[in-house]
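User: I'm curious whether this sequence folds into something compact or stays loose and floppy. Could you predict its structure so I can see for myself?
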Amino acid sequence: MEQEMTGMTDIGTLQSSDIRALNERIERASAFIDMVNLEMGKVIIGQHDMVEKLMIGLLANGHILLEGVPGLAKTLAIKSLSETASVQFSRIQFTPDLLPADLVGTMIYNQKKEEFTVKKGPLFANFILADEINRAPAKVQSALLEAMQEKQVTIGPETFKLPEPFLVLATQNPVEQEGTYPLPEAQVDRFLLKVVIGYPSREEEKKIIRSNIAAGESQKPQQVITQEDIIAARKMVREVYMDEKIEQYIVDIVFASRNPEEYGLGHLSNLIAFGGSPRASIGMAMAAKAYAFINHRGFVIPEDVRAVCMDVMRHRIGLTFEAEAENITQEQIITEILNKVEVP
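Assistant: Here's the prediction. I'll summarize afterward.
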């Protein structure tokens, strides 16, 4: 977390000429976003919000949890994004019998050399698709936790750094709960965004039918960016200017989830078990910067914060039994907070 905090842009009074120059630099640096969206559009019909959130995770160096019923192209979107970049992609199907060694690797005895050698697991890749992540037991989740937070894994006595960029894109099915394990709160907090995927529109569904029953091979996205492009873009995202008033706005939103009575939301006190952690504030700032970058802008505006707030906060607010009994959701609470907290 310290590394994330030190990477934040210092807030200073920028001259309008500086802002203009920064804006031009960001506009040039973010030109590849349109190319990625074009390639993704060849495979993914609709689901613009999901594709946008995947890009935010990629640029803000944050892991993403996608939740939605089967058949909404979650896996396809993640695989397609990896195909637009020259990165190593690894898909791990999470099952109840999965072991930590199946993820990180293990020590194997070499009879010829009479010594143990390390066999690295599928976690040693740039993009990790953790399919149906909530089907694996706690031991596997704890192994993944170190990789997500520390960007390293331990095999036997040795610790290995994971490749850069490293991104975990996890999916979970909210419907079928038989044979699933609830994700630990500590792990859920490691995800920058939790994106809930909805159904496509009528027109989009008709296009999906046509594209899937049409004769001939389906289109594949072309590679348009490299690992170096991603790393350079992440550095540029951190340079996006964020005014002190925007910082205060982010802090107010997070604090309203912890102490709602201080913001005239006393009726939420009995519904919230716990609010967002400092990681929520960092995540919202980074996601807002990435959102501004995607929109070819060199500065953050309040609308950027509002655009990412739901996905940054929905998995970081705990509900009380009272809230669950009244069918109150995190989304309703976040909406109330956004409507109440003063916009700069």
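Summary: The chain has two domains: 1-30+240-344, 41-212. The chain has 15 helices and eleven strands.
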